Amino acid sequence: MATKENSIAHPTLIQVRFPANQQKGIHNRWHPDIPPFVTVKPGEVFKIECIDWTGAQIGNNDNSDDIKNVNLTGVHNLSGPIAVEGAEPGDCLVVDILDVTPFDKMPWGYTGIFELNNGGGLFAREFNSKAAKAIWDFKGIFATSRHIPGVRFAGVSHPGLIGTAPSAELLATWNKREGQLIAECGNCVPPVAFPPESVGSYVGQDLGKDVLEKIGREGARTIPGREHGGNCDIKNLSRGSRCYFPVFVKGANLSVGDLSFCGAIEMAGIITFSTSIIKGGVEKFALKQPIFLPSPIDPLYSAKLVFEGISVDYHGDGKQYNMDATVAYKQAALNAIAYLQKVFSREQAYLLLSAAPIESHVGAVVDSPNACVTLALPLGIFEHDILPKEDGLTKKDFGQCAIRSDGVV
Amino acid sequence: MATKENSIAHPTLIQVRFPANQQKGIHNRWHPDIPPFVTVKPGEVFKIECIDWTGAQIGNNDNSDDIKNVNLTGVHNLSGPIAVEGAEPGDCLVVDILDVTPFDKMPWGYTGIFELNNGGGLFAREFNSKAAKAIWDFKGIFATSRHIPGVRFAGVSHPGLIGTAPSAELLATWNKREGQLIAECGNCVPPVAFPPESVGSYVGQDLGKDVLEKIGREGARTIPGREHGGNCDIKNLSRGSRCYFPVFVKGANLSVGDLSFCGAIEMAGIITFSTSIIKGGVEKFALKQPIFLPSPIDPLYSAKLVFEGISVDYHGDGKQYNMDATVAYKQAALNAIAYLQKVFSREQAYLLLSAAPIESHVGAVVDSPNACVTLALPLGIFEHDILPKEDGLTKKDFGQCAIRSDGVV
Amino acid sequence: MATKENSIAHPTLIQVRFPANQQKGIHNRWHPDIPPFVTVKPGEVFKIECIDWTGAQIGNNDNSDDIKNVNLTGVHNLSGPIAVEGAEPGDCLVVDILDVTPFDKMPWGYTGIFELNNGGGLFAREFNSKAAKAIWDFKGIFATSRHIPGVRFAGVSHPGLIGTAPSAELLATWNKREGQLIAECGNCVPPVAFPPESVGSYVGQDLGKDVLEKIGREGARTIPGREHGGNCDIKNLSRGSRCYFPVFVKGANLSVGDLSFCGAIEMAGIITFSTSIIKGGVEKFALKQPIFLPSPIDPLYSAKLVFEGISVDYHGDGKQYNMDATVAYKQAALNAIAYLQKVFSREQAYLLLSAAPIESHVGAVVDSPNACVTLALPLGIFEHDILPKEDGLTKKDFGQCAIRSDGVV
Amino acid sequence: MATKENSIAHPTLIQVRFPANQQKGIHNRWHPDIPPFVTVKPGEVFKIECIDWTGAQIGNNDNSDDIKNVNLTGVHNLSGPIAVEGAEPGDCLVVDILDVTPFDKMPWGYTGIFELNNGGGLFAREFNSKAAKAIWDFKGIFATSRHIPGVRFAGVSHPGLIGTAPSAELLATWNKREGQLIAECGNCVPPVAFPPESVGSYVGQDLGKDVLEKIGREGARTIPGREHGGNCDIKNLSRGSRCYFPVFVKGANLSVGDLSFCGAIEMAGIITFSTSIIKGGVEKFALKQPIFLPSPIDPLYSAKLVFEGISVDYHGDGKQYNMDATVAYKQAALNAIAYLQKVFSREQAYLLLSAAPIESHVGAVVDSPNACVTLALPLGIFEHDILPKEDGLTKKDFGQCAIRSDGVV
Fold first, then answer.
1. Per-residue pLDDT for D338 more than 90?
2. Name one GO molecular function term (chains A, B, C, D) (predicted).
């Protein structure tokens, strides 16, 4: 008979309840001196709760003033570190991402366009971005938005940010090379990179003042991805995937955060893990960065409309770039947005492209001077037919997404 | 009863028999003054034969001297132009790529590593490339190579190069912006772009001397992709896909070539098309570049091993780049090659990655300073298990691919 | 800012806490006179808790005595009925199965082989079945079993049993035709069908004695599938699917139960729904039975080993059957079990085939006298390679599943 | 350089040119005494030409009189036998189906409804079938039909009929069990099975009179599938699949025919094979019937509409059948036809369902008394939207398929 005694829930090892900067088990810097907050054995199944990357600053409402005024000094918040018994530098930490779900009590997330001068984003300059957002309601495996009617898609829930702790040597390498880039670029807007910064540094544990100061002074910001993983925003590193991380410190010290429902639908929620260790895996697999096996349950939308982009015309100037896949990627995205604007508003089109399960492929980076990148938009997420048809596309009355209370877009 | 009278083959409108530079219906420059070689009606199904991009310079043999000495002045050879009745500037030309097959009489193709100073390639500098190649035998829908044992994969046969003819204005724009890039970059090796060049210019038709000189002087090289399509090397623009091209000249003047079996397995063969026209489609679909619907029969290998790359360390120098997806893509590819070298030789690993049905996704280009790109290698193409396992990977005795007759690699 | 006020959980409309036969909102007969237990509006998202089909009789332990002694008089238990405002006979009730999950507090399920004389099953006679079971541990989206080592698969979670309430006329039709079959078959073992039965009849509501007696006397057993849906055990009617049911009574009166994790991993848990109504849908869609759209997140295992079966040799007697797809299906399954027995024990092989995400296709039922049915076993669920290889398959030391405490198998 | 000398086509070992009953290398009976027509070595790639199953009796025209009057005494015609060097009874013959294509010169096929009294078919009695047909034009990987406008689908080209030769013992078993079925069923229409028949027997080789008579007297008809493979009509045993056959006679003696483009689009064409042998494979893999690995390039249409069927009401009589998957399959198909008749004519709907890449799954055969079978119709093959919508479906003016010249349907 099924009983309480033979039905044991998997334990939740980090719980989030308070404001981010008072929460134990949350940190926002990478540093080898942040001790593990919890320790697990290989094979154990456990859950970790995560706040959203901003620390709950964004609300489920219909204007974007919270996006406009978001405080970014403390981002991104991570849950951890989690030590795995027996892991040592040079090993490979195998992490099974068994599930990623929103909280039952909080079935929504958001996609934001950030202001050019506060957060920026892919088209911050092209669009002279003003804050806007779409709230997405989670309905089981699907999300819909009252701010972008007519679409519904299944989530590729994933941690935007997951990685092992760097060693002191690796951290020094990061700080050196990123410092050089900052030095070269001067006062770019938006900034090219973010140096260590004591203000806003938070480790989620009671540590000595010296250590806290050292972490504030040296700790790498959690914004970008690096050799240990970090903020790679890889949609397909989703629930069900198996990831192989290089280990740089004793215990591996895994941290995770920035949960997303799909493309960039930011959310708070729960991630379920189990881990194992392959001794000497860094050498065995030539592991310079994480590698992973994707999930068998990533949504399958076989019909797609694909947009191409080439490395020309970064800011509308028609300039020829030299085999630049970033420019080509932007062009493909701009071409998709232009297409979607035949149906949606400009802000809706931009937000939809950020949120949806798109796939962007690097086609070619060998045919000088043009890199070619494609972006595939699944057709199955639209309630209406958006295929290219004889009669063209029909602009629907889909209103507008959440914008600033002063009405500026 | 089935009879000859009720069984009519689809016509072959361009046939290739002679050396490339004597062949009618072949050209290697983009120019509005190259007249259509054939004209078709919308809805008609027809076949076009193509030579490989080098014009049959590479042989089915076991050394790579032909790669080393390849003459690149005439590349890439295209079949066409094909005019479609009724197409006018501003229209959208819908092209169904109904099939792409090798010739029955020539069931093989090749993947090459070109010399740093003659052809280059993605890792020409990192590898100080010496000529190497793999011959792939086509066995129905599959390819195998005696030069890279232990792999077999289904083809995503596609035209590497397909596009409509540019208008005079568009051609002028190309020449201007590419000229500026060349001017800025001076004598880079390999070159950043290729200006118009009379030597080797070929149009495949008997035209007046003035026109030929004009085309030689102004005609855009067929090497890169541009707004009309061109050499985008998009694996998924494969047989079965439907492509929407902007039309710039009366008749659209479609040309095609550079057939590939999969990633970069170069081949000669036959492409089957049908076309239709959407009047005013450029405006209707905001068509700055081609868009397309992928094929329902692209091979499905659900299990994949995914490699990550970030925008650091372009040439082994550890340098930090600013959100550069090209660098991140290269890193992901180098990580995959390093992994494959645990099993194959360096040249085999590089060639295999060029040939196989890999998929490279742009993960993120918003988390300064690191772009993150992933590269997915399907596991189903290997006869042996290449998953990361407790015991590591086993170096097999897989010999070596075709190398130079002087033995230099 | 995210607040409690703007974060509202979807409501749970039926909760299960007590023994099945004391639980409100649970019933085990189909009858139009069972009133709705809850009523919802179209568009509302809501959750329904379900007990497992046996009412929690099976435990998470290592012998199968609970399977051997299971009491089947009360099966299958359903949660409901759920009325949808506005639904009327002749309408189509659209049901979105938004999610299906086990309880957090009960992360396990089971697959059972039932005794020939108590529950039976597909091969009850061929195997002279003795009770056995495998317990499956749910680890996020995956299940593994200590009783069948070496396999892990992602769940296609689904309600085995879901349907709308029959009208009095439809119920009478069922009782008549099934009664005739029972009359014809006499005392078959296992029985060919189950007539209405007052003993064990349960409706989960306080109703008058007359009504309860009528329901006991007339109510259709919940065991088979019928025109309203019911126990179809359609694996692909899974979370994420959209189902269109014919409506036979005012409110439609939907009921659901018999949750499964994958093939036949029985579990208790939570199903999330939303509904809508298409007026007159039965006529609009010629709706004789439910139709549905599958989920975009059903697990994708592209590599499969497929077994064939023909309509011969039902019970090892070599007899030729006339185009009988049931016999062909059994043969295909027996062929798969024989193959798996090269690696696993007989009981493990049988249970694995019951639990795994297999797909069985009807190949042909036109080539007299043999129907041909195939059964596809995904290769990606095995930790070891089970492909047909030169050296054959290797019997692993995988122990045995849970068997009877008297050791009889 | 690519040359004629290094470009060798795969050989075509059986060519078809004459009427079927004069053609060498064609036979229409299974018998161990038919000697191999060609012999191949393991590993060799070779091509085999096949006529369609009727021997070219059906024409590319617009009436169905040829279907009405088809002569079925000689069907199905097979190409072969093909001996593989080294194969012996008890071995497993591995057959790679490398490609299956129509002849270039004959880019069309057909789907037929056969008369109740001449050929029959799945719904011969329900529909009181009158001859009808649809001609499908092959356009690269796609087929379209002027007789069923508005659909286009990619082919899952496959041999409907492929198998190894039976031993004398196996043949005797077939003849005995099928003879018993025929004896039991008397004069059913359509017949339940077909006994050996000298009239129309053809072996495609010059053999002695005694042998020819023996083959005529004993040879199994090629209509059904059996333990050796045969006419299983398994759509997914398509080009790109790898099949494992049991070997019953020295050389295995493989034969093949009845090529199809997709569901049941009959065609003549070319199949490309290679083979290998696993010694003792019958025992190693418990090989009672063939098993196979599906192709990686089977078309992927993720969006599907699924119809359910239960084992009730075989001939419109409402009768309850006992767990009969054949009846359930028919019900699912009839439900799909009823749905499609909202758009197409009855004959078009029936033919479309026969031709299209549908998938029929056996859901459950354990919930007495109803087997449940589903049939999935891919949505991507329709040019118009056939989803269940608020407004219902729209009957299009799609004319009618090819019918008898006397106009009877």
1. yes
2. hydrolase activity, acting on carbon-nitrogen (but not peptide) bonds, in linear amides
